């Protein structure tokens, strides 16, 4: 879970003046029409008729980025209009429609598991209110342990909760959350004497109640209280992804159309798209800037950040207005997506053939014709990777930078790669093949390993700085995190492999509720409740609910899935041995 933060409430209020007004307009305005629909066929999963009968136009997901960059929408500001991405498999907005889990038997014939009702009760107990309005869910409702920062609303943690509420036809809390965090983005952010970028989103916030004045205030943490004082790079990306999910689920574009939201998106992406000394389209990051928020050797170009960056860019294209200031931003996004997809598919991808090619790499190559472009030393290949790599399968490795490849598997980055279509269809299938082939290693007795394998002994001392929380097969160092179940399920459904998700959910159901919804599990197979794991962890609860609702109604996956742009650059093979 997130590192310990010791917030001084009075100091934070005086320095940040975080008095945030509540938007009293909670009405959800449905769109009169859907501007366009994706040409995506999920009929094999749903096998039910589409009741929607409107004129179908090609969506941004279906159209190529190349076509978009030269389209009249960008050339003519007067005619510019944003394209909405309602996919075929999202037949209608979900506002007012609750999940089948609220009845003894769902509409699709799945028997509701007894722990579903308990999960909803626990999720509702975690809700946070600000001046009478629900604005999020706290990280954990565990009164047996010191609260530390687990009584705060974390941006990344709230995402599965938000999806659960959206799928259950309760969008108000999501709308409120998006607006409150947007307001917090505008406040001055300083660590010591250094001011953070204007677009940085908070890692978390909490509601402070002044009993004397009977007044509530929001207090935010932008990294100034975090372990290592690292700003959350992923928060802004999750915010954009959630905004698109809200718009897609409700059919209500009024929130995304607000000038404040449009500006917030531009500020977030301006931090990432500014020109500098970078020679790669990937984002250079510090250790601890994402879900793995402690020192774990993920500095540089971690797969989690690159995949979230890619998805946020694609979601931004769908919610940004293509006129005025938005037009220039859209053009930058299109260029970056082309470069980023090419880079990730070419240099981060690893399968058996590519592993063999790296094993045979020559070093010290100079010139643009070099095959070993990053001068990776073959002797640096870890021994475990040769046995771990199946004959059929592959994955995006953890990190690629000069003379360094981190070959560890990271679940979140690979699942997001599938959902965002950063992975090609062939690569997505290969990732699923890997999970099936290495079920014991990656799923075991509790889904899902946050990374694999664990680092230990001397390497653990060097990489983590002897971190007592990230010992081998614990926490971020090979621990098993139930929250990842929703990401795995979404990826399985998108690739047409729902049976994998169903099997993983059955594994989780055997223990998750009985163990009181732990934050994470320890051990090589995920057999033991984590040694410092909080109980009644909100995103463990929400992740399970979202996974169940997605299996019940696969159309929900449309909130978090994007189809491949067919004009993206093809995968480049780094080895020329195949031409011989």
Automatic annotation (TrEMBL):
GO molecular function: endo-alpha-N-acetylgalactosaminidase activity; sucrose alpha-glucosidase activity
EC class of the enzyme, as a word: hydrolase
Record's keyword annotation contains Hydrolase: yes
Gene Ontology biological process: sucrose catabolic process
Record keywords: Carbohydrate metabolism, Glycosidase, Hydrolase
Name of this protein: Alkaline/neutral invertase
Family: Belongs to the glycosyl hydrolase 100 family.
EC code: 3.2.1.26
């Amino acid at each position: 879970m997130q590192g310990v933060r010791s917030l001084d409430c009075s100091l934070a209020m005086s320095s940040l003046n975080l008095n945030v007004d509540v938007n009293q307009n909670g009405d959800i305005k449905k769109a009169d029409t859907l501007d366009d629909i994706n040409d995506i066929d999920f009929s094999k999963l749903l096998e039910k008729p589409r009741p929607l009968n409107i004129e179908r136009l090609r969506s941004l997901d279906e159209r190529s980025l190349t076509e978009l960059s030269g389209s009249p929408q960008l050339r003519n500001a007067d005619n510019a209009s944003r394209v909405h991405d309602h996919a075929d498999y999202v037949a209608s907005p979900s506002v007012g429609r609750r999940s089948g889990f609220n009845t003894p038997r769902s509409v699709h014939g799945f028997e509701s598991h007894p722990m579903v009702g308990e999960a909803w009760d626990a999720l509702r107990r975690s809700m946070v209110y600000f001046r009478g309005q629900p604005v999020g869910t706290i990280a954990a409702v565990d009164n047996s342990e010191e609260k530390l920062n687990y009584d705060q609303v974390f941006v990344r943690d709230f995402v599965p909760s938000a999806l659960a509420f959206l799928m259950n036809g309760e969008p108000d809390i999501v709308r409120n959350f998006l607006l409150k965090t947007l307001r917090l983005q505008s406040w001055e952010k300083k660590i010591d004497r250094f001011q953070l970028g204007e677009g940085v989103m908070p890692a978390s916030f909490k509601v402070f109640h002044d009993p004397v004045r009977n007044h509530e205030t929001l207090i935010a943490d932008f990294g100034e209280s975090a372990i290592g004082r690292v700003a959350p790079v992923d928060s802004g990306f999750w915010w954009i992804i959630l905004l698109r999910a809200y718009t897609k689920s409700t059919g209500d574009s009024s929130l995304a159309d607000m000038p404040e939201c449009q500006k917030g998106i531009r500020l977030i992406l301006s931090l990432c798209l500014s020109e500098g000394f970078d020679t790669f389209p990937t984002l250079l990051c510090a250790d601890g800037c994402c879900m793995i928020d402690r020192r774990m050797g993920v500095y540089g170009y971690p797969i989690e950040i690159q995949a979230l960056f890619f998805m946020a860019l694609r979601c931004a294209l769908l919610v940004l207005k293509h006129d005025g200031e938005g037009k220039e931003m859209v053009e930058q996004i299109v260029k970056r997506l082309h470069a980023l997809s090419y880079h990730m598919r070419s240099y981060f991808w690893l399968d058996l053939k590519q592993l063999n090619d790296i094993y045979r790499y020559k070093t010290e190559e100079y010139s643009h014709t070099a095959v070993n472009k990053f001068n990776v030393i073959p002797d640096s290949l870890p021994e475990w990777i040769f046995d771990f790599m199946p004959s059929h399968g592959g994955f995006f490795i953890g990190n690629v930078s000069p003379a360094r490849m981190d070959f560890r598997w990271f679940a979140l980055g690979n699942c997001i790669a599938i959902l965002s279509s950063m992975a090609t269809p062939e690569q997505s299938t290969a990732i699923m093949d890997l999970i099936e082939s290495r079920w014991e290693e990656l799923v075991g007795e509790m889904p899902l390993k946050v990374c694999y394998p664990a680092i230990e002994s001397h390497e653990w001392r060097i990489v983590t700085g002897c971190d007592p929380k990230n010992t081998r097969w614990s926490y971020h160092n090979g621990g098993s995190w139930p929250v990842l179940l929703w990401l795995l399920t979404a990826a399985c459904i998108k690739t047409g492999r729902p049976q994998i998700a169903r099997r993983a959910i059955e594994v989780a159901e055997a223990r998750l509720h009985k163990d009181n919804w732990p934050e994470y599990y320890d051990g090589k197979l995920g057999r033991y409740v984590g040694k410092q794991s909080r109980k009644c962890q909100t995103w463990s609860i929400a992740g399970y609910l979202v996974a169940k609702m997605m299996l019940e109604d696969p159309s929900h996956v449309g909130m978090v899935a994007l189809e491949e742009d067919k004009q993206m650059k093809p995968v480049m093979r780094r080895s020329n041995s195949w031409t011989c």
